[in-house]
Specification:
- By secondary structure, the protein is α/β, with parallel strands linked by helices.
- Among the domains are: 81 residues, 2-Layer Sandwich (GMP Synthetase, Chain A, domain 3); 156 residues, 3-Layer(aba) Sandwich (Rossmann fold); 66 residues, Orthogonal Bundle (Helicase, Ruva Protein, domain 3), CATH 1.10.8.60; 95 residues, Chromosomal Replication Initiator Protein Dnaa, Chain: A (Orthogonal Bundle).
- It is built from 25 helices and 8 strands.
- Strands 5-6-7-4-8 form a 5-stranded parallel sheet, with helices on both faces. It has a 3-stranded mixed sheet with strand order 1-2-3, sandwiched between helices.
- The protein is globular and about 85 Å long.
- Bound molecules: adenosine-5'-triphosphate.
- Adenosine-5'-triphosphate binds next to helix 11, helix 16 and helix 18.
- InterPro entries: AAA+_ATPase, Chromosome_initiator_DnaA, Chromosome_initiator_DnaA-like, Chromosome_initiator_DnaA_CS, DnaA_C, DnaA_dom, DnaA_N_sf, P-loop_NTPase.
- Oligomerizes as a right-handed, spiral filament on DNA at oriC.
- It is found in: Cytoplasm.
- This is Chromosomal replication initiator protein DnaA.
Amino acid sequence: MAGDRDEVAPAGLTARPTGHRSDGFGEQRVVEDQSASAGGRAEVKDLDEAWTRVLAGLPPNQRAWLTNSRPVTLHESTAIVAVPDDFTRGQLETRLRPDLERILSESFGRDIRIAVTVDPSLDPELREPAPQQPVQEPVRQSMPLHQPPQYQQHQSGQLQPSQQQQPAYGQPSPQRHDQYQQPAPTPQQPEQRSQHAQPSQPLQTEGSYQPTIQSALSAPDAIGQHNHPLHQQVQQPLGSVAPPPNGSAPSQTATEAHGEARLNPKYTFETFVIGSSNRFAHAAAVAVAEAPGKAYNPQLIYGDSGLGKTHLLHAIGHYVRSLYTGARVRYVSSEEFTNDFINAIRDDKASQFQRRYRDVDVLLIDDIQFLEGKIQTQEEFFHTFNTLHNANKQIVISSDRAPKRLEALEDRLRNRFEWGLITDIQPPDLETRIAILRKKAATERLTAPPEVLEFIASKVQTNIRELEGALIRVTAFASLNRQPVDLSLAEIVLKDLIPEGSKPEVTASMIMGQTASYFGLSIDDLCGSSRSRVLVTARQIAMYLCRELTDLSLPKIGQQFGGRDHTTVMHAERKIRQLMSERRSVFNQVTELTNRIKHQAKQQ
Ligand SMILES: Nc1ncnc2c1ncn2[C@@H]1O[C@H](COP(=O)(O)OP(=O)(O)OP(=O)(O)O)[C@@H](O)[C@H]1O
């Protein structure tokens, strides 16, 4: 009990409850028992009543800070109040203190001071992962980084279905989609139908099957129907593929492998719309997924931001895992790879790092351009690449440029990228953009008539992420106003989002500056660790806008916000998308901020 009381600090100090007290009243009971003989019971009850008066007596802007705060107990002349986070505690101890103490003193007829304690469980909504420290590539390390891998025995095996229940190598495993939260099946337009092989169909067995890019290219336009291009006889196999040595199945369980893969369940081949701009890359991606390590190794996909490179990488991962039980797939952005590498050096865990990236069947590495200029990480990646390639493990790489244009990447790496197959993705044409919107509307259960989809597709021409963002804003606006989604509504919403004329360049610092000043916060607040509701919303809106209005990658955005993890940015994006259609205030805040940011960008 004494321990409990020790957690409560006088104003100015922070105390963190050690136990979980979801109602914030755990401590009240403690003190109640202690002081029962001295009439403390009545006082505790009075504190609740006094708190009601406090809430009624404060102006709304101050009251907002108390939404998730709770009175805990009255101990002599100190009222103890629990709040969800440090930021709110700061507000109570500074701005609100005089009014709080005045109203409480009036209620009790004697001087009352407040002491504030932090109880994070009071804010159940906040699930933000803790921020990570940003990391810098070390200048020089003395430890040996490139020892031969210590898991040679695992590397002999090509992908093999694991033990009893599995079909023979080269045959698909039964559907394992239940392991993922696949998007709910939705009715599809003929042109949106998935064009990759169904896992329930047998794959051609080793030897008889060779993918061919010719056949992929001869497929009709994506917007029309076509046969699966990859079950055709080889005419000109690309990439040198050594026959895989026989080996044992990976020892990892499917569940472990799934946890490691970190794939977005929405990014599958089913949800990927094929058009002339991406058909080649898609066909090669399917080929690679069906015959990992054998078709094209490495496969490199390049193209501008927001055109579907990450989507394809994840889709490969899902498809491999649905075809080969136990397949060890790992998706990683190059930024994470770098950070992981640096942390491994710092923590003296080089061999664990190497195992993580070398003991896999398929390595999907996103945004390789991030390795430019990072000599040590390039060196490490070079060895990772060689180890995997020598063992006939599949490597798929994405980049925002063709390898030749990755000037700050070592020649030996660029050369290796050219060993396999290089495919590009171009901005989609109008028909593909409409088909993407149609599919997006169906999977997200957003209702929008064809003319609205066409209108949006005609307005947003390059980045598919922006295209999706525009659809979300239009449907959110309609839902908030309980209006049907029609052309005039779409025109209103998109007028501000997509200004006429050249596209001004928006930067993360513009977004952070405007967001901070809009919410009366500082940039440090946005980058800091406070999780007060106001701040979290502001931070999430700023992250959402960085995602929508800039080309920055998830990890890059995370770095801008005090070194947060990329999953925090993903969470923020999802959260704000959802809140925009549920809360008018959030929709208005995002719209107003977008206007301010674009206005500022135009003036630069
Ligand atoms: N052909 C497509 N069909 C359906 N959705 C697509 C397609 N291409 C892209 N998208 C969607 O567009 C969004 C952006 O795609 P993605 O993140 O894969 O782009 P990217 O090229 O990796 O961008 P960046 O380089 O900025 O990371 C995603 O939501 C993705 O699902």
